[in-house]
Design brief:
Blueprint (H helix, E strand, L loop, with lengths): L2 E5 H4 E4 L2 E2 L6 E7 L6 E8 L7 E3 L5 E4 L8 E3 L8 E2 L3 E6 L6 H8 L2 H9 L1 E2 L6 E2 L1 H5 L2 E5 L1 H44 L13 H17 L26 E4 H4 E5 L11 E6 L4 E2 L2 E2 L5 E5 L14 E4 L7 E3 L8 E2 L3 E6 L5 H13 L17 H6 L1 E4 L2 H43 L3
Parallel strand pairs: 16-22
Antiparallel strand pairs: 1-13, 2-10, 3-6, 4-5, 6-9, 7-8, 7-10, 11-12, 14-24, 15-23, 16-19, 17-18, 20-21, 20-23
Amino acid sequence: MSWKTVKLGDILKRRRETIKVLPDQEYKLVTIKLYHKGVVLRNISKGSEIKSPMSSIKAGDFILSGIDARNGAFGIVPDELEGAIITNDFWCLDPDESLIEKEFLLFLTSTDFFDHICKQSSDGTTQRIRLQKDKFFNFQIDLPTLEEQKLLTSKFKTLELKNSELSTELTHQLDLVKQLRQSFLREAMQGKLVAPTHDGETGQQLLAQIKAEKAQLIADKKLKKEKDLPPIKAEDIPFAIPKHWTWCRLGETSINRLGKMLDATKNKGLYYPYLRNLNVQWHSFILNDILQMKFEEHELEEYSVKKGDLLICEGGEPGRAAIWESNDESFKFQKALHRVRFLANVPAKFYLFYLEFLCVSKKIQDYFTGSGIQHFTGKSLNLLTIPLPPLSEQRRIVEKLESLMQTCDALEASIKNSQLQNQQLLQQVLREALKR
């Protein structure tokens, strides 16, 4: 191939067609998706709502985001955005078509190599990093002839089509794994995943045992007497369960507590690490950004987290939950979290899976409160209708589900690895094609 070294400024010129924005006229404003996902409509606004200087663009124009060029924010303006407008944070570039084809330029900008150019050409403070004109236009690249560019562009299109087809198939496979998870959770909670117990145990017996244990705690003054929860009505029951199971309220089976309010002006005592909503993920905790707040001596037991406690998010993603598996009892928890401690050795893992089932099936939304940002309040938590199988059956269900979910995790990891390899292969082929 016949290549020559050129500066980007030799083949690209920035064009600005500043317009006067009229207050009563409507304008299309665009944005550029990151990672080479294209130019799209951001919104339609009246001129009176637009405060920044604006420039017009045409269909077929090549534009980039000065702020996000380092993250692949390039694209060609589609026909439906003819006459749209952009702020000065967007660059409209006119390629010298005697030296470079526009479609070849688009493929060139989709490479890791071009991302590197933009990162090297960007500068500024953390929140205001932008592409710098002089650095960018002075960057040198090796460019093939127009004929060779056309040939490479044709090959890139074929490769991109195959890549897209494979990506679609892998996304479909991920969706199938998600459906498989939902199916396993649904069958588990409906008593269809494992064979029923044959030892005569029932959920009704277990509920009576739990109530007796709670009554003893109240009698021993280790627990305050709570207001009776309302009986379960037919409309409260979301699905059928085996006859030897029973429906009850979560508040009947556990001791629940909302965490402590963070208030630096009022909180007293010694500093302890505490868990926030952000620390709780599904089935796990993120502990690399733990904060501390003050707790008084009489608050330590009340707000401590112990091994086996189920912690549930009140907001953010209400219902997201994980079980504290550590023996470290120095951790406390903030008001954004509910702590649930089950009685009678009921395994918290069964109800962690139940919460996951409610969340993926969106049934948990029936328990949310709030017209804007929704929350899973302590009252809603106590009222949550839950199935109660015998203990031995709960443990077998948990064991089976853990095995099945590990299989789903492995399948999902394999598919995601294939997606990554697919993208890496595309980039590798592009790099090889663009070598001299």
